[in-house]
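Supplementary Note 3. Input sequence used for the single-chain structure prediction.
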Amino acid sequence: MTLKFGFLTKYYQYYISGLKMTLFIAFFAVICGIIWGVCLALMKLSKHKLPHYFATFYVNFIRGTPLLVQIYLIYFGLASLINLPDMVAAVVSLSMNSGAYVAEIVRAGIQAVDKGQMEAAKSLGLSNKNAMRYVILPQAVKNILPALGNEFVVMVKETSLASVFFVGELM
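The predicted structure, written as discrete structure tokens, is reproduced below.
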């Protein structure tokens, strides 16, 4: 049995443009998702009740609903109110979904750092903000980076749902 790849010479430009669009959507969805996820993780770790409850509800709601439903809500709900282009609606919905997963990744990475590190930073006279910034987060990054790489791979696969709304990506 021989494989025939003659169609590649005829349609390769469509595959290349689809791959570019897929990587573009995945890249921006993960970048925005990381920013939103870090904010959500810090809100979940907050001692203030309102941000903590909001972040907990958001993460549980987003992680508990199918991504296609979330895309529908953004595309038909938000996009109809403020007239979003198809690709922006896809990136926004994928970013919101990615942010919920990244929030749990970042929260777990921060909580994996030994509590003695915070105590040591405070004994040196650092405030909570500076201790988190200079001591805890740099150590948490080594726990977070592999999972963020996995999140990018998952996002590349999930961009295929953007094709539902006529965004011409690799799917």
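The helical segments are 6-44, 49-64, 67-82, 86-112, 115-123, 128-158. The chain has a mean pLDDT of 88.
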